[in-house]
Hints:
With 151 residues, the protein is an alpha+beta fold. The protein has one helix at residues 2-25; strands spanning 29-30, 33-36, 40-46, 54-63, 68-94, 97-122, 128-137, 140-145, 148-150.
Amino acid sequence: MKKWISIMLCFILCLGLENKVLAADYNEYVDGSYLTNDDSSEVTVGATTRGVYLGSGSSTINKQGTGKIGAGGNTVGRKVVDKISVVVQVERLVGGYWRTYGSAWTATNYNSAYVSTSKVKTVPTGYYYRVVCTHYANSDVSYSFTNGIYI
Length: 151
C-alpha cells in the first residue's frame, strides 16, 4: 500500500511539474502583442487591401543596454509617391494596458517610395515596451506594432 501511495504521489508531482513547464512555454498576450523576454521584436505588415500606394510597413524595438531601447519603423510604397511617412510611438504596459510613453515622432519623404526612422530612448526599467507605427503612402494608411519586450 505504501508503495502504491508513493507511486501516485510521484505521478501527481510529475504532472504538476509538466504543467508548469508547459505554462512557461506560452507568453502572455495583451492587445495584440506577446510579452517576451526577447532582446528585440520586429513586425512587418502588408498593404491595405484597397490601397494602391502602400506596399508594407515595419515596426521595430530592441534593447540597447540598461534602461535604453532602440525604436523605429519604416514605410515602403508600391511605387514612388508624392508623400510617404511613418509615425513611431513607444508604448509601455501599465496595469494590464498599453499606454503611450513619451512623444511620437514622424519621418516623411517626398517623391519617394521609402522612409525610415529610429531613435534610442531612455526608459524606466521593470516594464514591457512595444512600438506602434502608422504608415502613410499618399492616401493609404496602415498600422503595425511589435511584441512587448521586458526592459
